[in-house]
């Protein structure tokens, strides 16, 4: 109900009916309802954020130029992660904020996963991701400025196993991320943040070990 209401608010009634249809359909399948319900909820949330962000991107004449780039590093479950990310910000005034307080963003990233087990038959893979994000920033212009952000997106892995005992089964994965940080410097140009990331296939296929890891990021505004 909350997700459907949010969809209606951000997409002017377009996303909400679609979300309701997907959710109702997912609940018709008996024993698999829980599995499909999880997938539907994630897709509803992701499509809601996309509905808020992408129309603004299309209206921007320089929409392909990222607003920021970031270096990320994380570790979890014997896997080290190094990555690069770019973000596009679509809230340029108060009227374009979601629910009046959340700034919609789109984040694209690529990361290299390195398994640390030895010996290791599956030592590494690449992860390509796309994630709509909602971001809240503390009121005011003081520096440093606190922010919190969260998003749900999709990932494509170049392999379905890493280390000797972690299996993803499918190259296509869902991703959930939440983080906090501080923006500082002239016009809050620089950011330091910490985040938690979870990647799994939402039980599309078993085994679904997934990966959860904690990370740090350093982001620089490009415009």
Topology summary:
Layout: H1 2-11, H2 15-26, H3 33-59, E1 68-76, E2 79-89, E3 103-115, E4 124-137, E5 145-157, E6 161-162, E7 166-167, E8 172-184, E9 190-200, E10 211-221
Antiparallel strand pairs: 1-2, 1-10, 2-3, 3-4, 4-5, 5-8, 6-7, 8-9, 9-10
Helix pairs in contact: 1-2, 1-3, 2-3
Short description:
With 223 residues, the protein is α+β, with helices and mostly antiparallel strands.
Description:
The chain is α+β, with helices and mostly antiparallel strands and about 220 residues long. It folds into two domains: about 1-60, no CATH class; about 65-220, Porin (Beta Barrel), CATH 2.40.160. About 20% of the residues lie in helices and about 45% in strands. The chain contains three helices and ten strands. The chain has helices at about 1-10, 15-25, 35-60, and strands at about 70-75, 80-90, 105-115, 125-135, 145-155, 160, 165, 170-185, 190-200, 210-220. Helix 1 (about 1-10) runs parallel beside helix 3 and helix 2 runs antiparallel to helix 3 (about 35-60). The model is unreliable at about 1-35 (pLDDT under 50).
pLDDT averaged residue by residue: 80
Helical run tally:
3
Distance between the termini: 38 Å
CATH arch. level architecture of the largest domain: Beta Barrel
Label the structural class: alpha+beta
What is the CATH class name of the largest domain?
Mainly Beta
CATH topology of the largest domain: Porin
Sheet-strand content, in percent, reads: 35-45%
Number of strands: 10
Helix/strand order, N-terminal first: HHHEEEEEEEEEE
Low-confidence stretches: 1-33
**What level of helicity do the residues show?**
10-25%
Biggest beta sheet summary: 8 strands, antiparallel, barrel
- The shape is globular
State Rg. Answer: 18 Å
Overall structural domain count: 2
Widest sheet: strand ordering: 1-2-3-4-5-8-9-10
């Amino acid at each position: 109900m909350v997700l459907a209401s949010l969809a209606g608010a951000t997409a002017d009634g377009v996303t909400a009916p679609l979300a309701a249809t997907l959710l109702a359909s997912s609940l018709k399948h008996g024993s698999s309802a829980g599995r499909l319900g999880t997938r539907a909820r994630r897709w509803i949330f992701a499509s809601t954020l996309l509905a808020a962000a992408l129309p603004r991107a299309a209206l921007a004449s320089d929409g392909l130029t990222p607003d920021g780039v970031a270096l990320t590093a994380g570790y979890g479950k014997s896997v080290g992660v190094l990555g690069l990310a770019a973000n596009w910000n679509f809230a340029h005034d108060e009227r374009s904020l979601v629910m009046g307080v959340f700034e919609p963003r789109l984040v694209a990233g690529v990361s290299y996963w390195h398994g640390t087990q030895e010996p290791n038959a599956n030592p590494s893979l690449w992860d390509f991701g796309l994630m709509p994000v909602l971001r809240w920033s503390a009121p005011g212009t003081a520096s440093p400025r606190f922010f919190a952000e969260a998003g749900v997106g999709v990932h494509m892995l170049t392999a379905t196993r890493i280390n000797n005992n972690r299996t993803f089964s499918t190259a296509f994965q869902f991703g959930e991320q939440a983080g906090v940080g501080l923006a500082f410097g002239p016009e809050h140009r620089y950011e330091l943040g910490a985040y938690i990331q979870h990647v799994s296939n939402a039980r599309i296929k078993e085994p679904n070990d997934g990966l959860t890891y904690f990370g740090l990021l350093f982001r620089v505004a490009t415009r």
